[in-house]
Please model this.
Amino acid sequence: MQSQVIRVEDYYDVEVFDKIKAFSEDKETPFVVIDSGVIDQHYSALIENFPYAKIYYAIKANPALEILTLLRDRGAHFDVASVYELDKILSLGVSADRCSFGNTIKKRKDIRYFYEKGVRLFVSDAEADLRNIAQEAPGAKVYIRLLTEGSHTADWPLSRKFGCQTDMAVDLLVLAKSLGLEPYGISFHVGSQQRDIGAWDAAIDKVKAIFDWLKNECDIQLKMINLGGGFPANYLTRTNDLATYAKEITHYLQDDFGDDMPEIILEPGRSLCSNAGILVSEVVLISRKTSTSLHRWVYADVGKFSGLIETLDESIKYPIYTERSGEREECVIAGPTCDSADIMYEDHKYGLPLSLEIGDRLYWFSTGAYTTSYSAIEFNGFPPLKQYVIK
Ligand SMILES: *Cc1c(COP(=O)(O)O)cnc(C)c1O
Model:
């Protein structure tokens, strides 16, 4: 099987690529370059396609100050997962009413910290956590996270660990009310890089059933649905475009809620940032394990521990671009550290040109999300993955 040839124009405006490349030329690899203009465009596309939704940026995808300030200035809200993210976003002048505490796993004292800073919107999926919220953030709005299925069609699932079953969600919302909290809504995350848009349909149906049950049986009127993230970025495995996601999801919402549409929240991370970034790396070594081996090993100066953790199980297949051309041969692609887990792709054989040489640059496309924020700080002495944000 010959892997597909990666062409710049399938992933970037050629001017964007040329600009990033020119910026990269004199810099020591590895590093990510983000073009903030692309994030701006993705944000515009998001609000055009979901005009009725509030956007809560999932900070963990890429917490660069330039990205946070850009989204602040565009009027975004923020899905905050820790006190550190909260401090950072508040220090940029974002008011606490634009933040939610979106992590189901939190210390009691951190709930208090969020509350003292002015945050009034909290997620939960467990009774003990809900009771902590009632004590440390009295009167706050809470939304309950549902477990979702369909993780096999998400390239980076966020299932199992988060959320609870429908019955428990109902019980928790009833309990929230009795604890003096405001039972506000329901959230779910269908899995990151979710390629099956139908995953939202199944989840929205469950949400509708909860809304109805609580209204009819418990006199609780929920007000909000948080549709999570999961919106697509461009990797090797193609997806529908954002407009198609929006059209289908809007249709599911209208089917269930008609004119009685609750407040809708989206929490995008990947879809906003991925395609704004390129990771620039260099080939450190090319070898064969035997003189007759039909594939080469290509070792880059970037790997699983320096930003490419989402290659675990080869989940995310980044398009890898080289300026070399000509006949291609299947390669195993690995990182530079002394750890045999540091192999990015072995099952999926990338075809790289036979003319590729040590010292050549490899451009990893769509690496603007979940790369720098995952990078180890000192494994084998390698520093964390650098990032530049350009306009
Ligand atoms: C990580 C995360 C997101 C972002 O998901 P993407 O698929 O990157 O858009 C949204 N919401 C929550 C609660 C998350 O943990």
In short: The mean pLDDT is 96.
